[in-house]
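FAQ

Q: What does a record look like?
A: Structure on top, sequence underneath. For example:
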């Protein structure tokens, strides 16, 4: 395939008719306007050997993560989840009991949202397992959080954990039988979401933009900058331990500080939320990582009194 993922998405968008009153390609969800509430719709594919390996994922884990990655998109848009539709292409080596385990994991993740699977489709696959999930949600009319509405002067915040999922994947890749109770492994297989804290923040503070972290903190922050036509300054000297245990792990010598930073900023599959606000937010578990500033889309790093431009590239899908 000649184009990268985001180049291909941009090319597709250019060839489609305008979305009209809807908000389409370019955000975590499509937004279909209503009267009191707007409808949110998002969809994701999980492909075996691309997004997961059954050598160290259980079918329960696959189901849990399939739910989490879609629910995260709804949360990033400021919405509440209202339902899921699940379609699965099942190869011969996957049994009926495997599929039931998949749905047990999916239901475990969906439970806190008070919703369930509303429909979908099943078919056969000649090779690998493929899963397509569509999540629906709702948000008060006109209140969806977009990537395109960050403003110079806004503070950049992180809610959730960064880099731990990527380190968990590293451990599993090196040893498929690695302790599944290891917190890093758990972070990768069953990424945590924070709907209650996020709802509390949204109800108390002005949020100008948001995105969930699937491809890495820097890469996903850059999507906000592209859509908003702004630049960002990240402060390396803040306490990143507020959103990651990797700096502490580096202090023990188990990983280098360079590896910790690389995983923290570029690792991906965290499903943390990066958002912007003009207000000072001091809730526990939140990190103020930098500021939105005027300028072309780029990420500048402030460290030890110096400033330099960062390579923002995160995970590349193809």
């Amino acid at each position: 395939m000649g184009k990268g993922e985001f180049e291909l998405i941009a090319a597709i968008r250019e060839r489609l008719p305008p979305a009209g009153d809807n908000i389409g390609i370019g955000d975590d969800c499509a937004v279909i306007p209503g009267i009191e509430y707007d409808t949110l719709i998002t969809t994701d594919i999980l492909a075996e050997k691309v997004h997961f390996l059954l050598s160290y994922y259980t079918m329960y884990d696959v189901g849990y993560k399939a739910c989490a990655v879609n629910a995260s998109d709804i949360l990033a848009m400021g919405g509440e989840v209202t339902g899921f539709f699940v379609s699965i292409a099942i190869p011969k080596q996957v049994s009926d009991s495997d599929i039931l385990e998949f749905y047990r994991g999916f239901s475990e993740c969906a439970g806190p949202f008070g919703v369930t699977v509303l429909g979908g489709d099943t078919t056969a696959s000649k090779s690998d397992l493929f899963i397509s999930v569509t999540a629906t949600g709702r948000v008060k009319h006109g209140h969806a959080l977009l990537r395109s509405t960050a403003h110079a002067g806004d503070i950049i915040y992180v809610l959730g954990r960064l880099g731990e999922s990527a380190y968990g994947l590293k451990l599993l890749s090196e040893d498929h039988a690695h302790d599944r109770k290891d917190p890093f492994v758990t972070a990768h297989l069953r990424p945590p979401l924070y709907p209650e804290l996020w709802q509390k923040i949204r109800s108390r503070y002005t949020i100008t933009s948001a995105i969930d972290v699937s491809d890495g903190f820097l890469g996903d922050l850059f999507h906000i900058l592209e859509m908003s036509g702004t630049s960002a300054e990240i402060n390396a000297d803040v306490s990143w331990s507020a959103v990651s245990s990797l700096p502490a792990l580096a202090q023990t010598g188990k990983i280098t500080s360079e590896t910790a930073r690389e995983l923290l900023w570029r690792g991906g599959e965290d499903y943390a939320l990066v958002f912007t606000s003009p207000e000072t937010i001091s809730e526990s578990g939140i990190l103020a990582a930098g500021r939105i500033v005027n300028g072309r889309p780029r990420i500048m790093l402030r460290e030890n009194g110096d400033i330099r431009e960062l390579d923002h590239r995160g995970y590349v899908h193809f």
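Q: Is there anything notable about this one?
A: The two ends are 7 Å apart (CA to CA).
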